[in-house]
Each structure stands twice: as C-alpha cells, then as structure tokens.
Specification:
The structure holds 2 protein chains of 2 kinds.
Chain A lengths: L32 H15 L6 E5 L14 E4 L5 H11 L4 E7 H7 L1 H10 L4 E6 L34 H7 L4 E6 L3 H13 L4 E6 L11 H4 L1 H7 E3 L7 E2 L5 E5 L5 E5 H4 L15 H7 L9 E8 L5 H13 L6 H5 L4 E3 L1
Parallel strand pairs in A: 1-2, 1-3, 3-4, 4-6, 5-6, 7-11
Antiparallel strand pairs in A: 5-11, 8-9, 9-10
Helix pairs in contact in A: 1-6, 3-4
Chain B lengths: L3 H6 L3 E3 L1 E9 L4 H15 L2 E7 L14 E9 L12 E4 L2 H7 L8 E5 L5 H6 L16 E5 L1 H9 L6 H4 L3 H12 L5 H10 L4 H20 L7 E3 L8 E6 H16 L3 E5 L6 H9 L6 E4 L3 H13 L3 E6 L1 H17 L3 E7 L16 H6 L9 E3 L5 H16 L2 E7 H5 L1 E5 L19 E2 L5 E2 L25 E3 L14 H17 L18 E6 L3 H13 L4 E6 L1 E3 L5 H6 L3 E6 L5 H9 L4 E4 L8 H11 L4
Parallel strand pairs in B: 1-8, 2-5, 5-6, 6-7, 10-11, 10-12, 12-13, 13-15, 14-15, 20-21, 20-23, 23-24
Antiparallel strand pairs in B: 2-4, 3-4, 9-16, 14-22, 17-18
Classes of the chains: A alpha/beta, B alpha/beta.
The structure holds iron/sulfur cluster (SF4).
C-alpha cells in the first residue's frame, strides 16, 4: 500500500513569519500563551522542517487555540481527545511531525486516559502541556494541578483535591522523554522544545504558563527574574545538580528513595547527584520530580528523562512490511482463503 | 462389519431440509460442534443459515441453566433465509440444556440426549425432580438415549488420555453421531481436527477417535432405523464460502481499502459482539491495514478520525454502549466533514443490557444520538453475507461525501453464517478519491489560497487536503466555520447556513442510492411489509407463507436508512396497509410516520433472538384480517 503522499527529503528554509497564520491571536492580553507561541514560531525555521509536514493537534481550552495561529496543518478537536486523534494521525503518517498542544484540564482531567496511553505506547508525538493550574476558558474553576486549599468559583471553601505533578505522572506512564520549562524564558523554552522535537517517540513537556486573568502569578515565586536563581534547578545531563547564584545549593539522594536539597559546602561537590537523563530506570527522574510540591519551592526544570525505545509508528510499519513480504496481499486470494465449494 | 441386511436398513431417507440445535454447557464445546457441522454442510453444498446463542458469562457455573450454550443450524436443498422456526432435532448434552431448550423443539421432534450427564446432581442443578428421560415426560418426542461420555472415554482410553481429559472429546462424539444421522461427509471434519490440533497430538487423536466412534455408533447401534440425507441446494452457479457477518464486514473493509486505494485504519476497543471484526482485520496487515486496540471507545474513534485527517480510510467498530461513548467524536467528524465509518454491531440494551443477545434498537441512536443538528448517513446489513457489500457502500458514501457514516449490523448477523457466492473482484465498484492538490480560491490581492470548506457543487463535499500537500496548509476544528474559508465564525446567519448545508449534503446522498425495489404484486397487494436489518430473512419466509395462503403481500427492505431512497414515500402510499417488523419497540416506524405521514404499523420483538417466520406470518395474517 502506498502512502497518501510521497516523502520529500529537504524542506526549503522558512522564516518565523511563514509559520504565523493570518488569524488574529485572541488570548487575553498578557497571557503566557503569547510567549509560548512566539517561542514555537521562532523555533520552527531552525528545525528545518516543512510547514506541510507539520501538524498541530489540540483539544479544548485556552491553549487549544494554538493550532489556529500556526501556518501549518492543524486540528482543534474536542476536550481531552487530542492525544488519541494525534495517535491515529502519527500511526497513519510516519512522515509527519505531529505536535499536541494541551492544558492541565484537557490533558490531566478529561483526557488523562489518552495522555498516559500515548506516552506508554511511545507514539511519535511532541506534547506541550501548558500548565496554568486553573480552568481559564470556563472562567476560573480549579484544575487537577491546582494546589490543595485553592479557593475558586467551584471551591469557595478551598480545594480538597490532591494535585497531579505532571512530570511525575508522565514518568509513571512510561514516557521516554519528560521535560519542564516555563513561559518567562524564551531561550529555555526553545531549547526544551528543540530537544522534545528531536526525540523519536512521545516527548512530554510541561510548560508553566501564567494565566494573568484567573491565576495571576501562580509561578512568579520561582519564574520571576529575581527568583529564578534561587528557585529554579536547571537540569543538565552529566552535570552535578546545583543551583543558586554561586551554585551553592545542590541535590543529594538520601538513601530513603528521596532527593533532598543541601548546601554543597556541607556535603562536598562529590556527593551531589550527577544528572543522568538516559537512565533506563526512571527512579532518579522521579525523585527529582518530587523535589518540590509546588511552585513555591526550588523546582527542577529542563530534561528529566530522555531514553530511547522503539516508537509506535515505526513498530506498526515494521509489522506491515513484514506481513507484506515481497508481494502485496490480494483480495481474490483473501476471499478464497476459507473453505470454498463450487456450484 | 455391516452385513447386507444392515446396509439396506441404513439407506438414507431424503429430507428437503432439517433444523438441528446443539445444546450443552458453556464448557461442552457446542459452538465448535455446530460450527463444524455447518462447515461440513456448506462444503457438501447445502444452503444454510445458523443461529449461535451463548451466555454472557465466559464460564457460568457448570450444569446450570445460565450456562447453557446452543447452536442452531438450518440446512436445506433449496434456498433458505432463516435459521428455522422450531428445531427438528435437539442434541442435549446435559439436563440443563434439555430444560432450557426443549420448548423450542417441534412436537414429535428428535431428541438426542447424553444420558451419562443425567445424574442426580445435574438433574437437581437443572431443577428436575425426576429424570425426564425415564419418567415419561418426553413421550411426545423421539428420544435417542446415548451414553456419550462413557462411549467417548472407551474410544480414547487406549490412546493414553487421562479419564478427565477423555470426557472433553464428547462433543466430537456428538458431532460424529449427528454427522452420521444426516450423512455428512467425514473428510472435512477429519481434516479440520488434524490441522487444528496438529501441535497437540494427544488431543488431536482423542478428538478424531471420539468423532469416529460417534459416527460408528450411529451406523452399528440398533438405535436408528436409517440416516437422513439433505441433498445439495440448487444455488446460482459460482464459488461459495460459508461466512459470518463479522468476517464479511471485515473483508468488506479490506475490499473498500483496495477499491478506494486508501490504507485502512481501524481504531477499536474490544466489545461483544463486535470484537471479531478487530481480530480479523488485525490479521490482514499484508493489505497495509493498521489496527489500534485503543485505550477506550473514545480513543478508538479519535485515532480513526486522526488517520482520516491524514488521508486514510478511518474505521471504528463497536456495539451500542460504545457508540454512546463515541458520539461526541462523531459530532466532531460531522463538523470536520472527514470520511469515517462507524460500525455498530447492535446488542440488547440499554446499558450493558444483553451483551451476547441480538437486538436492533440503535437506529434512533444512529439517527439522532448527538447534540446539535448532526446528520449522519446510515446503512444497515440484512444478512451475514450482505455485510460485505454494505461495508463497501458505507465507504463509498463516506469518501464521496466526506462524512462519517454509521453502519448497523447486529449480534445475529455478526455470529450467524450463510453460504456466500464470492464476487468477482473486477465487478466491485471503484470508490477511489482524489485528494486536493491545488489552491481553489484567490485572496483579495489575487493570490491563490486554499479554502477547506469550498464545496463540490454536486455533492456538497468539501475538498480533502491531506497533510504533506504543500501550499494547502489549513486548520479545521469543532468550532463553527465560515462557509467556504473554514475560518472560525460566530456569525448567526453563517451558522444557520452551515447547519442547512450539512443537512442538505446528507439528504443529497439519496441521488446516489438505488430506488427501493418492491417484491411481488406491485399494484394490488393488500399489505406491504417493510423491513431493515436482520429481519430480512424472517420477513422473506413469512411473506412466502402468506402468499401460499392466497394473500397478496408485497415486501421491501431498506439498506439505506438515512437518507431513505427517493421513492420510499411513493412505495408506502401505494398499499392500503404497511407493516414494519423490528427488533426494538418500533424505531423505523417512527421515522417513517414522521417523514411520510403514513399509518404504518409495527410488530416488534426484543427477546434477544431473531423473529421466526412463524411469528411474522401470524403478525401479517392478523394485519390481513385472516386469523
Ligand atoms: S483565561 Fe488565562 S489562560 Fe486563558 S487566555 Fe486568558 S489569560 Fe490566557
């Protein structure tokens, strides 16, 4: 069976403008989504990919408007289902770059099932989860990442729900690539998205995103310029995990299956954990993901895990090719494949 | 060794048809027995129709009424359309099977019982206070008492089979016996056992020995006067195979892929009685078919829709409860105007209902089960073999009109089988499609651009531009779109126009479907019987019987339920009375009354089994005032 469209080798160069559609961007002024869009549109020409081979698929929510603003192929689907729809598209068309743009409600509440299964199957998708810890489009209810006790329209006495930690969740769902970035640092976003795009298989990126209307400043305690040095732990593969203005803080494993923050001077640099995103066992990545319980404590960003595992589309194609052998299957043979008799 | 006298006594007596029902415990292998008897009969050249019936539980407690599994097969030397009303022969492997199934057997019918199973424990479990085989309560039947378990054990002990395992082969003993009783050729069954159990030589040999022992028992025991024979049917010339509805549907989808030139993508979640379509398609990767066993029903249709966006022929298979879960995505497919096939193998509802029992009560769900004005074309299969054709027709509509299509089958068609005259592949329709490759519009400055909702004036279908096509990058979604450009639009007048155009597009499919044919007495019939779905066979038989009694009855059967054939209104108005048999509480009748303002009457059944022709004959005679 031939694919719908033959593959082309090299894409002609593009500019940021080529990737911007003619649609007016309609997020609230000041929304963090603008800077994420800018980061993606700026990055795309660098990736050397063709617009016609790029598809953005989204569900419902503020973030889900994203595909309308990208001048590529796109689908704005229904609430929570983007990973499922994108799974079909990526399985059918290995030649495409399929991105999923989703939010904390879309991916972790109504669509939680699809997200975990896309991750464990390792479908070749780049999944960007804009986490603003609130429902924006429905005007301000708590979300599955909102902190305990959060007072919103639907929780006037405070939320009783233990929030999800999206990075921990993705690691538990057998994801092969898990990263975190935030909307206040375009360079960090671009670098993280570039890594995610280069990963073959399901790449999951949590993006801390400010909803300035319903949850303003949710991440300011760690992402504001003044706080970053103290509060963001930038993960770098092969490097000891240190942070602080002079790298004076570091991360150790305490023998209880926990990561802990210590003064480097107290334990010595040799005892600080060296980050290894390629470990087959997700234990280290998981411990790092548990370092902070919310954006008020020092929080790791960057790539937690990047391991290689066959992706779903490639494996699907491998089975098809093996079954086809030298000769395509024949319909007449199929119809006669069960016992027949002639009248 | 048979002597000459015995040979004479054993000359078969010819029958024009026979209905046999095998019944036993779920663990007794009755489905397999029925299936093998059917295969041998098919290869022998009989016409046949089958009705497998099994409990929802995988293994209900042994010996109980709840655990009874049965398989009915009707074989004949002429064309038939139903599994038959009352069985002529009932094979009962235990007391529960006898108790659950005896009421179906015709008076004076033949009963073959495995007497070994009629011990006190089994009798009590089945609710018998005394043994019906010996207490005279079966006097109205011809009873053959056969100690099948003992005879099977005797036949296989020399092979070294453990006594517990030996008993497992008793269904092959029953098969051998009934095969002798109806002069079935032994070779196909022997060959099947040999290949099926090739890797387990002991099981193979035990089953072969049991089968041959059953056959020999019929021939040598003084029990039977003679065997019977049902000669091959005179069917139209051609090559035939025996096929179930689910296999025919799967093959129809394979064919649709070949005929359209598009790869098939199936997204599905296992559900009774549709899972066999997933199983079958998963085997045919050689045709470039991708199958995904999704995490849930919603993901199944979602993935199929995603693949459709990528230029594949997307399909999802399910039963009623799954359709309910898929309905939001079906609405999205209506809005996206992408081809998609949704197959509903209906079963008893609501909710989990009767998972293994047939019903056709999802017609209104198919028609209306979505929010908003969300029209979806509907086609329905009327027999197991018809499923093949209907799958291709569903694909044709989906691809031509860029729309989701519902295909309705049901549990009876799914598992039932009939001989199918294989089509010549060259005669199958061409349903190939063209993807959009070029801009179709100019912007204000005269630059070419692509409008994803600029329609074909005839079909109202929108262009299908698949990712990978340079210059046609576009975004689609569930928000209302501006007519033509496809940009998001909240404009009220535009919304009204789009709602209307989607309705018009589906209504316009009627231009491409054949007019409804009417069989018999077109001008002066007293009664028209209108059917849809699997009621076809029973209606066919019942109309024949009414005609034999001198009544003028016309019949018509719908494959297309949305839109209806253009002449349906005329047909309905031509007859003084219209009767619509349905396996629900009257769903088509509501549509027909609403659409055409005719006083159509309803006859309904929701008992998990198809109508018999006898039941429909009675309903027709009542309508005709002939009681
Ligand atoms: S509601 Fe919040 S998340 Fe949504 S667009 Fe406005 S600021 Fe952004």
């Amino acid at each position: 069976m031939t694919e719908a469209v033959a593959t082309v080798a090299v894409a002609p160069p593009t500019t940021r403008k080529d990737w911007s559609s003619d649609q007016e961007v309609r997020w609230c002024p000041g929304c963090g989504d603008y800077s994420i869009l800018a980061a993606v549109q700026t990055l795309m020409p660098d990736l050397g990919v063709a617009r016609e081979r790029t598809v953005f698929v989204s569900g419902i929510g503020c973030a889900a408007r994203f595909p309308y603003y990208m001048d590529s192929y796109g689908m704005h689907s229904i609430h929570g289902r983007a990973p499922a729809i994108a799974t079909g598209l990526a399985m059918a068309r290995e030649d495409l770059d399929v991105w999923v743009v989703t939010g904390d409600g879309d991916a972790l509440s109504i669509g939680g099932n699809h997200l975990i299964h896309a991750l464990r199957r390792n479908v070749n998708l780049t999944i960007l989860l804009f986490n603003n810890q609130i429902y924006g489009l429905t005007k301000g209810q708590y979300s599955p990442t909102s902190e305990l006790g959060k007072v919103t329209k639907s929780t006037p006495f405070g939320s009783l729900d233990q929030p999800f930690n999206p990075v921990s969740l993705a690691l538990g769902a057998e994801a092969t690539f898990v990263a975190r970035t935030h909307d206040m640092d375009r360079q960090h976003m671009m670098e993280t998205f570039r890594r995610a795009h280069a990963h073959r298989g399901a790449a999951f990126v949590e993006v801390y995103q400010n909803c300035n209307v319903f949850n303003d400043g949710a991440f300011a305690g760690i992402t504001a310029k003044a706080n970053r040095e103290h509060m963001l732990i930038s993960l770098a593969h092969g490097e000891p995990i240190c942070f602080g203005p002079d790298g004076e803080k570091g991360v150790v494993l305490d023998g209880q299956g926990r990561a802990r923050i210590v003064d480097v001077a107290e334990v010595g640099i040799g005892n600080i954990v060296v980050h290894d995103e390629t470990r087959a066992e997700p234990g280290l990545a998981f411990m790092l993901s548990r370092l902070s319980t919310g954006p008020s404590e020092p929080t790791p960003i960057g790539v937690f895990r990047a391991v290689s595992r066959p992706d779903y589309g490639t494996e699907t194609t491998r089975q098809l090719v093996a079954a086809q052998g030298n000769r395509p299957a024949d319909l007449t043979d199929l119809l006669r494949s069960r016992p027949t008799w002639t009248v | 060794m048979a002597d000459t006298t015995a040979q004479q006594t054993h000359d078969p007596v010819e029958l024009d048809r026979v209905i046999i029902r095998f019944a036993g415990d779920s663990g007794d292998g009755m489905q397999l027995t029925g299936d093998r008897f059917t295969s041998a009969s098919a290869l022998f050249g009989n016409d046949l129709v089958t009705l497998p019936e099994f409990p929802a539980e995988i293994r209900a407690p042994a010996g109980t009424l709840a655990g009874v599994s049965a398989f009915q097969v009707h074989i004949s030397d002429h064309e038939i359309t139903t599994p038959g009303d009352a069985p002529n022969v009932l094979v009962a492997m235990n007391p529960a099977a006898l108790r659950a199934e005896l009421h179906r057997l015709e008076t004076g019918g033949t009963l073959v019982v495995n007497t070994d199973a009629f011990d006190d424990r089994n009798l009590t479990k089945a609710g018998y206070r005394s043994n019906p085989v010996t207490d005279g309560s079966l006097d109205r039947y011809t009873v053959y008492e056969v100690p099948m378990t003992t005879l099977t054990k005797k036949a296989v002990t020399d092979l070294g089979v453990k006594p517990r395992d030996a008993e497992r082969s008793k269904n092959f003993f029953a098969l051998g016996l009934v095969s002798w009783m109806y002069t079935r050729p032994e070779a196909p069954t022997v060959a099947w056992i040999e290949s099926k159990f090739a890797n387990r030589p002991l099981v193979r040999d035990a089953n072969l020995a049991a089968f041959k022992a059953g056959h020999a028992f019929g021939e040598t025991a003084e029990l039977f006067d003679h065997p019977y024979e049902v000669k091959p049917a005179v069917l139209p010339a051609g090559t035939y195979t025996n096929i179930t509805g689910n296999t025919a549907l799967a093959w129809g989808l394979v064919a649709a892929g070949q005929l359209s030139g598009l790869p098939i993508f199936l997204g599905s979640y296992p559900i009774t009685p549709a899972s066999d379509i997933l199983h079958e398609l998963s085997r045919h990767k050689g045709f470039g078919i991708r199958t995904l066993q999704a995490e849930d029903e919603i993901a199944g249709i979602g993935a199929a829709l995603g693949a459709a966006f990528g230029g594949h022929l997307g399909v999802t298979t399910t039963s009623g409860p799954g359709v309910a879960l898929k309905s939001e995505t079906m609405g999205l497919a209506v809005s996206l105007e992408l081809p998609l096939i949704i197959i509903d193998v209906q079963r008893g509802g609501p909710s989990t209902g009767l998972p293994t029992k047939t019903e056709a009560s999802d017609l209104l769900q198919a028609m209306y089960g979505r929010h908003g004005e969300s029209p979806i074309p509907i086609v329905a299969a009327s027999s197991p073999a018809h499923c093949f054709e209907v799958a291709i027709e569903a694909a044709r509509i989906a691809l031509t009109y860029r729309t989701p299509v519902m295909l309705l089958s049901d549990g009876y068609l799914a598992n039932g089988s009939e001989p199918w005259r294989l089509p010549d592949v060259a005669d199958l329709p061409d349903i190939s499609v063209d993807f959009a490759t070029e801009a179709n519009h100019a912007d204000v400055d005269g630059n070419p651009e692509f409008w994803p909702y600029l329609r074909d004036p005839d079909t109202l279908a929108r262009p299908w531009a698949v990712p990978g096509t340079p210059g046609l990058e576009h975004r689609i979604g569930g928000l209302e779109k501006e007519d033509g450009s496809g940009n998001i639009s909240y404009d009220p007048a535009n919304h009204e126009r789009m709602v209307q155009v989607r309705a018009d597009k589906v209504a316009g499919i009627a231009d491409s479907i054949p007019l409804l044919g009417v069989d018999g007495d077109p001008d002066d019939a007293e009664l028209l019987v209108l059917g849809w779905g699997s009621t076809w066979g029973a209606i066919d038989g019942a109309v024949d019987r009414c005609r034999a009694r001198g009544h003028k009855v016309a019949r018509a059967h719908l494959t297309h339920l949305n839109p209806f054939p253009r002449n349906l209104g005329d047909v309905l108005r031509r007859y003084p009375r219209v009767l619509i048999p349905e396996m629900n509480l009257g769903q088509l009748v509501k549509l027909v009354r609403a659409e055409y303002l005719v006083d159509a009457r309803s006859v309904t059944k929701v008992r998990g089994v198809p109508f018999t022709s006898g039941e429909l004959e009675a309903a027709m005679l009542k309508e005709l005032g002939d009681q």
